[in-house]
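Exercise 4. Each item below gives a protein and its sequence. For each, produce the structure-token representation.

Item: Gliding motility-associated C-terminal domain-containing protein (Fibrella forsythiae).
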Amino acid sequence: MARLFYHVLCCLALLSPLTVWATHQVGGHLEMRAVGDVPGHFIVTVTNYFEDNNRAAAVTAATLAIYRKRNNAQMVVFTARESGRRSSIIYDNAFCATQRNLNFITATFTADIQLSPGQYSDSEGYYLSYQTRNRNGGINNLSGPLQTGFTFYLEFPALTTTGKYINNSSPQFVPVNGEYVCMGEPFTYAFGGTDPDGDELRYSMETPLNVLNGNATAAGPYPSVNFLSGFSATNAIHGSPSLSINPQTGQLSVTASEVGLFVFAIRVDEYRNGQKIGEVRRDFQLLVVDCPPAQAPDPAAQISNLPATVTKTTLCPGESTTLISTLNPDWNYQWQRDGVNLANATSSSLVVSEQGEYTVRVSLKNTCTKVGSAQSLTINSLNTKPTLTSAGQLCATYGSAVLHLSDVPDVSYQWTRDGQIIAGQISDSLTTTQPGLYQAVLTHVTLGCKVSSDQIKLVRAPAVVATLQSVSGFNRVCPADPLILAGDGGITYEWQQNGTPIPALTDALYSTRTAGTYSLTATDANGCRGTSPPLTVSAVPPVTPALVTIPNFCGTQALPHVLMGTPAGGVFVGPGTSGNVFTPATAGLGKHTISYSVRPASECSAVTTSQTAIVHPIPTIEMDEELLTFRGNSLILQPNLTGDPISFRWSPATYLTDTQSPAAQIESIKASITYTLWVENAGSCIATDSIHITVVDHLYIPEAFSPNGDGINDRWSLINLAAYPMAEVTVFNRWGTVIYHAIGADQEGFDGKLNGDDVPDGVYTYVVHPDPKLPPMQGRLVLMR
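Answer:
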């Protein structure tokens, strides 16, 4: 035997102390119904299923919070208060409920709220959340169920889109019955809801949500419950098949393979025009037990005073009839109307006056066995004012609506508009294109009794004023930029280009790169349509900017240069650039990118070309102005160069091995000469410098002399000394004392005397400075007499 209780995940938190939170809440559901009088006016209804005890009695209100999905920002907190009498949940078999201590009640809380549509315009929508504790301790598929709570969750769309109000109510669900399921027996339960707006509902299995930090109004995201090993969202109840839900109808089905109390959750997605706009999560508990093998009762049912084969009848105002089932003192009886168990309807017969489909559920007394059902009996009652429904919309200048009555057999129909009979309309439906107050009168063909339906007022919706304009304010497409077109006046849009529909485009914005004539048809929340005036979009001709070649510049002192670009009217940007003038001194040495940008039109992105302006350094040459060398000498002139020169030229070419090398290689120089070096870098920046080379004969120094007065080699004289007018000669003894010093080219030479006295024979040291431009010459001198 099993029981089914569901929890529509709602965004509420009970206004009660934490001790009250410990109440075992079996489930519940939340509805958010648009009142329809003022945009943003809603009635929020919270239906809770509690264990019937003193703690549940203390819970009389609920706190709800709304959050923005995009960033989980809290929008508003409000209170729902108890609004109706509490009632017990009715079971097919009261004995089974008593044996399993299944004693649960229904409590309803409501809140009348007014939301500002302008504040609820985020395209990602909003959600409600409610966290409460605790679940039943006997749950068999959760880890730590007593420490596991509920988070009920509901999403709803933005109240306004592109300034237009979106009317929407959440799905609605019928009250629960006290159901039970036998292990090994197929079980189904019609769990599907209805949507007041006619939106599509899609169902799927989900993992239930746990509480977050024990805070009744905490924003998401919310944690999931912890399933025990082997259980999951799609295997919450083991079986063959395991628990599943029909994605279109919402019917639960399972053939359970083990007993226990199991938790699972269902997500109900709300779709409009193929797009998801809302979501409700519903938590459930299902008890599976091993039923005795006794055969289920097989009752019959019929309408009193009618043949057993007649399963439908109609009641006139004030009339009632009795439904009769097979009488058996060993059976329990529970009557249902439209699938909902009726209170105190537990005998084999039932007196009815209300319209509906009635079924009797029968089980054996004092045991929990499978339940049997008799055929359904349909009661069409003129005691109840027939419900008139409408579909369609009267738009400003077109459109139609269909008025329809629920099927009542054996009646004739007469329709009125504004109290006047509409001729020729005698069916249960009326199609009209006219506004007014409509009502139908039903007359039973056989019984002759009459009843009037409720009234419906049809009005024309305001005209849909569709507009189309470009976001930039310019009706032309730039060569490199898309043009954003913006529509208004509806909630969905159909776009056309040159009279041809643009597929799969329903948004208010369209990005195009193509010229043409555009229009759109806007559809508002009523389903009415309007077409915008056409908007002709032209193409801005492309431009190809060019920048006149920028010359090279030698040094930062070069003259400013006037930049030139085509077409005229563009903007020059780059280092050292002001207006259309490039100034090397401002830019500095180096390579600089100079760009020239031209807009094809004022609203278009600029098209850019660029060149490199190079401010080259001016080369420099560092080398001596003059140089002294010996005749026949070979040497290299190695000047210090800056400014990155790449071209070199020495002149004249006399004695040079290469005139185009940065270093001059001189071979066997014979005579004095002046060389000039020209250098040039990549920027054609030039520098020049000269060096004069004086060529002299070699100075030969004797290594010995004999000042003995024989007239031969009596003086130490340097050969070719006449070529060195600045020559300085010094002789030292072994103690470093100067014994001879002479300057000039006309010196007589060392005669071996110091202050008129002969110096001793021996080896002496000399140092000769031929010229300041030449290195000193030093050596040893032998004096022998």
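Check: Residues 94-99 form the longest helix (6 residues).
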